[in-house]
Amino acid sequence: QAKRFGGDRIEPFRPAYKGAGSGRLEMESDLRRAFDRNELSLAFQPIVRLHDGEIAGFEALLRWEHPKRGTISPSEFIPIAESSGLIVPLGQFALEEASRRLSDWLKLTPDGDLTMSVNISSRQLIRQDLVQDVKNALDRYQFPARCLKLEITESIVMDNPERSAKLLARLRDMGVGLSLDDFGTGYSSLSYLLRFPFDTLKIDQSFLRDDGHPQRPIILQSIVTMAHDLGLSVVAEGVESEEDTVRLRQLQCEYAQSYMFAPPLTPEAARRRLQDRQMGLKRAG
Ligand code: C2E
Ligand code: MG
Ligand code: MG
Ligand code: MG
């Protein structure tokens, strides 16, 4: 299946900076310059509805094309961006660029049935102006608030629970969607689901790796059932097998996001996929 996206496919990463120490400092100053030199961009990975295989939305994922080192993974540079404070302008760039694409792509989907998910880091959430940044984006690009979803990881919420809860409640009141990302990893606490106003739960990829544990399907089932009982939609991240896809469909898990369905795409390829979707829907209707 991945073959269909051949030329558009964004390749997996190799570590670009070796070790800690000076590598880290070098990466930080490179990242600072990258911002001014337009080396940063977004890739868009489809989030697919499991019952019909159609695109429900996209997750915006930062990409850094280093002139000498090639493409650098966000797992490498996001932590550096967070510790250096660079995450703030980076995050603003991601929100702005994703909003711009969303408003463009909504013109291809007259029913307004499209979401754009943007990852939010702790520094960004704690900053006063995330709410203002989101307001500005809504104002400027004129899309319905519900089309924007912010992805938050559990550890972020842990950092400053009181303040995070207030900010998330304000965003939720504006109508913006809130997804709990990487659920089941780190300092996972089920109490987050009570304390914070999430509407979507993203099951971490680690639950979709077939590691031979016979109990894995039981855990998967429990997470989906619990989420549904709490009124949350579920996205399964990194689904790898047909078996799991069938299983998730049976559990009425709403969405999947994985290489098996579609890798992160260039904006042009993502737009084309959406156009194809609309053609398909017209034919079906
Ligand atoms: P994430 O938010 O959990 O995003 C999903 C990651 O899983 C992406 O990695 C995606 O390419 C990868 N993925 C998707 N399908 C599959 C699959 O089938 N198998 C496997 N093995 N992986 C799959 P990516 O793009 O490298 O991003 C890594 C992380 O970097 C993201 O994890 C997110 O935490 C962070 N990140 C990316 N963009 C941003 C951003 O704009 N802001 C912030 N704060 N963090 C970002
Ligand atoms: Mg995410
Ligand atoms: Mg995730
Ligand atoms: Mg992650």
From TrEMBL:
Domain EAL: 24-278
Signal peptide range in chain numbering: none
Protein name per Swiss-Prot or TrEMBL: Diguanylate cyclase
Organism of provenance: Aureimonas glaciei
Classification lineage: Bacteria, Pseudomonadati, Pseudomonadota, Alphaproteobacteria, Hyphomicrobiales
Parent-record interval covered: 678 to 962 of 962
